[in-house]
Structure prediction request, 1156 residues.
Amino acid sequence: MAEKQKASAIEKVISAEEISKEFKEHSVAEFFKKNMQMLGLTGKIKTLTTIVHEYVTNSLDACEEARILPDIEVQIEELGDGYYEITVKDNGPGLTKETVGKALGQLLAGTKFHRMMQMRGQQGIGASGCTMLSQITTGKPVKVITGTGKNKPMSLEISIDPKINQPKISNLVELNKEFKGLAVKARFKGVKYVKSEQAPLEYLRRTAIANPHAKIKFIAPDKSTTNFDRSAKDIPSKPVEMKPHPKGVTVDEIISLSRYTDSRQTSSFLKTEFDRMGDKALEEIRKNVSFDLRKDPKQLSWDEAEEIVKMFKKMNFIAPRTDGLRPIGEDRINKSLQSIVQPEYLSVVTRRPQVYSGGFPFQVEVSIAFGGNAGRGNEEQNQKTKEQEGGETNVFEPERKIEVMRFANRAPLLFDSGGCAITKAVQSIDWKRYGIKDLENAPLTIFVNLISVHIPYTSAGKQAISDEEEIMEELRLALMDSGRKTGIYISGKKREQEKQMKREIFYKYIPEIAFALNKLTKENEGKLRKNLEKLVLEKLRLEEEAEEKVKEEIEETMEKTKKNEKKRKKKTEAEEEN
Amino acid sequence: MAEKQKASAIEKVISAEEISKEFKEHSVAEFFKKNMQMLGLTGKIKTLTTIVHEYVTNSLDACEEARILPDIEVQIEELGDGYYEITVKDNGPGLTKETVGKALGQLLAGTKFHRMMQMRGQQGIGASGCTMLSQITTGKPVKVITGTGKNKPMSLEISIDPKINQPKISNLVELNKEFKGLAVKARFKGVKYVKSEQAPLEYLRRTAIANPHAKIKFIAPDKSTTNFDRSAKDIPSKPVEMKPHPKGVTVDEIISLSRYTDSRQTSSFLKTEFDRMGDKALEEIRKNVSFDLRKDPKQLSWDEAEEIVKMFKKMNFIAPRTDGLRPIGEDRINKSLQSIVQPEYLSVVTRRPQVYSGGFPFQVEVSIAFGGNAGRGNEEQNQKTKEQEGGETNVFEPERKIEVMRFANRAPLLFDSGGCAITKAVQSIDWKRYGIKDLENAPLTIFVNLISVHIPYTSAGKQAISDEEEIMEELRLALMDSGRKTGIYISGKKREQEKQMKREIFYKYIPEIAFALNKLTKENEGKLRKNLEKLVLEKLRLEEEAEEKVKEEIEETMEKTKKNEKKRKKKTEAEEEN
Prediction:
C-alpha cells in the first residue's frame, strides 16, 4: 500500500526537476549573517560582551605573537537607546595594508586557522563578524587606525560584501602622527551596557586574572574608568607552532599532510610532520607495516595510512611536547587569584599535557579558592540555610554562592555554561567527598583554564567547549585533585570549629555543675571545677585521637579513589585502543 | 612606562609585516572539517544519531515539498569495532544529476537557506558534513542512488574537496531498474550504536511522534526491525514561502531586499516584499517619512530605510500570516502522544504565531502528558522518595522521571539540552504553582515543538535553539498554560486521594468508637455507628465546600497571574519599541 500511496488527488506531486530550480550556493558570510546567534552575537548584553571579547582577544594574540607587553584600552560610549560605540586600542604590531581588510572584513581569513599554535582566536571569524553586525545594525563601516611602525599609520573604513565574503575598504588616509598598534572603532545598535556577571567589565576582570602580564583600561559609558594593572612584567614565552602528536592523528590527516609535504620518502615525511617521531619509533613502524617506508608519501594509499595510524595507537610515545603550550602557571594563578579574589584557602593544580582526537595537545589548569571573597555574593542574604536553622556546624557563609570561571587559552567564557565541558566536569564531581555538601551555595571560586593549539568549541561563538572524552577526563582529574586539597582544608576547619564549640559548651557548664556537685557532695567547689576541666580536656584529647584516625582513613580512601581513577583511565585507554 | 615597555632584550619584537606572511584564506569546508563538533559530529553515540538526523530530515523535507507521503527506511550495519554503514532510503522526489553533487558534496549549497519557508533543514550543511566525515574517517566516498521518475535512476559516488568546497563525483552509472527517491549509503568510523535516550532508535521514535504522516522502518545492527507506522494518512499541507513581517525587519534587510527587487517605486517594493503590507499601512508610512515613496528602492539610503523601520515598529500590523507555518496540530499531537506515551492526563496548547527579530514568524506547540507511561523510567526504582517515607500523600509514582521532548520544525533535538531555549523555558517556570513540587522526579512528558521559517540554532549542529526574547516569552506562556491545566488535574487527583484516605480512616475507627461509646453511654451500638457515619459525611461535605472555595481562589490567582503576564509582556514590548 505505502509504496503507491500518494497525496490527495488535488495536489500535484512536485518533481525533483522543479525543486532543483531553487538550488543555490551561499557564502560563509551570508550564512553567519543569517545566523549571528552562532557567533555569540545575540541578546543585547551578550552581543556587547562578545564584541569586546573578539577585539580584546585579537589584541592579546597580536601582542603575544609580536612579543610586546599588551596595553589595551577599551571604551564604550552610549550614543542613544541601545546604540553604542566601542573603541578598542592596543599597542600591538598593527596590521599591514594588505591584511587589514581581510582581518576585519572577510570571514575565515587570518593567520590562526591553519597553525597548530595556542592562540585565543583560531577561526578568523570573530572580528569580521563584528564588522558585519555593525553594518547590519547601523549601516556604518568599522573605523580602523593601524600603525606597523614601518610605514606611516593609516586610517581607513572597512565593511563586508556578504554575497562574496570580501572586504570593502574606503576613506584610506595616511596619518601624519605617530601610532603603533591597532585601534578599532565600531558602532552597534540593539545592544545594551549593564554591570553584571556577563557584561564587559566582568569579562575584562577575568581577562586580567588570566593574563596578569596585560594592562587593561576600561572606560564605561558613564565615563568611570577601571584600570587592571599588570601584576607580572614578563611576556609569557611565545607559544610554539606544533606538529600533531601521533597518538591523536587520523588517517585523513596523514593523507592530507602527505599531499603537501616536501619529503620524498614516507619515513622522512613521518619524521618531519609529526611530534615525537624518533628513529626508534620509525624503526618500529618499518617492521610492522606491509609497505616500504621509502615510498613517496604522495602515493600513500588510505589502507597504508591506516596501517600507520594503527601502529601509532599501539606504540608508546613520549607525551606531547609541553614547550608549545603556555599554561598561565601555578605561581601566577596563585598571585592573581590571591590579589583579586582574596580567598581564605587556595589550591592550584596544573595537569600534564595530553592529546585529544585529531592529535591536538591540550592542558588543564584548575584552581579552587575557598572562603574570603571567593564565590559570588548572594542577593538573598537573609535567606538562611537549613543547616544553620538546625544549629549544625556550618563553615560556609550562607551569603556566598559558587562561581565557576571558565577560560580557554586564557580567554574568559561567560556564556553557554550549560553546554560547556568545564561545567559538565564540575557537575560530574561528587563534591560531598570533599566536604562540600551543597555546591551551589558554597563560597568557592573554581577557576579552570583549558589551553590547546585547537580548542574544540561547540560553536563559532566560542563560548562553550565540546565534551571530548580526553578533555573531560583531564578536567575531572584536575578538579578532583584540587577538590581533595580543599576538602582537607575544609574538614580541618570544620573540626576546629566543632572542637571550639564543644570546649565552649563544656566550659560554660563547668561552674554550674561544680556548684551543684558542691551542694550534693560538699566537696570544695574550686577543686571540683579544676577536676571537671581536666576531664573535659582529656575527653577532647581522646576525641581528637579518634578524629585523627578517621582523617587518616579518609585520606586512605581518597588515595584509593585516586588509584582507581588511574586504573579506570588506563582501562578506558586500553579499550579505546582496541 | 607602559608605552615603551618591551619584551626581554633577547627576544626580538616581531613586525606586522612578518606576521602577515602567515595570512591565509580558508573554505567553509575546511572550517567545518576542523570543527566537526560544531556540526554535532562529535562523540561516538552523538555522531551516529546526528548522521541519521541529517539524512532523515532531508528525506522528510523532500517528501513534504514534493507532496509525497514519506516512506523511509533506515538501516545501520556494524562492519567492525566502531565501524558502521548507514543506509537511508526514501520514496521522495530524488535529486537530479545537476543537484545531487552539491546537495551531498558542497557545504552551504541547497534549496533551503535563502527561502523563508518552514523546513527541517535550513543551512545546506548537514548531509555534506556527513560526506566529509565519512571521507575523513574511512577514506570512502558516499554511495547514492537517485531516481527522479523522469530519467533512468543513477548510481554514483560523492566526496568533497575541502580546499575548494566542491563535490567530486565518481562511478556514475545509469541503472536499468525502477527506483524513485533517494538512497544514501555511507560508512563511518569512530561511532557507536547503543540503545539509549540519545541514540538513533529514540531519535526515530520521536520523529514518528512529531510526524504522524511518516512511515519509518528501522533495522538495527542486530537485524531487529522496528516499524513506526503512520497514524495520519494526509500529508501536512505544504508550508508556504513567506515574506518577512514588518515588525521584525531590520534596516539592513530592507536595504538588501531593495537591491534585488524588480519594483520601480519604494511603495510597490514594500507592498510586494513584506507580509501584511496593505494600502492603509502604506498610506501611514507615506504620511510619516521625509521622502517620497515613489523613489526608486535601489536608491534608498540607510537613513531612509531606518525611517521605514521606525514606522514599522510604531504601526499596528495584523499578526504574521499563519498559513505559511505548519504546526502539527492539537489533534495530531494528542493522538500521537496518547498512542505512544499513554498518559493518564494530557493537555495540548498551540500558541498563535509570533515574530522574532529579523521578521521571522514562529509558533509554539506544547503538550504536557502526566501519569501513565509519561516521563522516563527511573533506574533507581527502589530509592523511595522522602514524601512517601513521611507518609504524605503522593500522587507521583517515584520511579518515573521527567522527560522533555524538544522539537524544531518537527525534528527531534536530543543533544545540548542545557543550552536550548526550550530547556531554559521549562526551568524558568515555577512548577510548584501547578502542583508539581519536584519537577525532576515527576511522571511528566513535556513535548515542545517550535516551528519557524528560520529556527535560530545556537550552532550549525542544530541541536539547541538560541534564547531569543520573543521565543522565550512564547515558550513560557505555552508551558504555563499547559501547566495550569495539568495542575488543576493533579490537584483534583490529590484531593480525591486525600478524601478517600480520610474516609477510610474515619470508617475504620467508627466501629471501635461506637463500641467504646456504647460501653460509656449504653446507647445502641448500631445507632451510634449510623450517627457517626452521618457525622463523618457531613464533615467531609463541609471540607469539600471549603476546598471548592480554595480551588476557586487558586483559579482566580492563576487568572490574575495570566493577566499580569500579559501586562508584563505588553510593557516589555512597549519598552522594546522605545
User: Anything to note?
Assistant: Confidence is low (pLDDT under 50) at residues 1-9, 379-394 of chain A. Residues 56 and 308 of chain A are 42 Å apart (CA to CA). Residues 469-521 of chain A form the longest helix (53 residues).
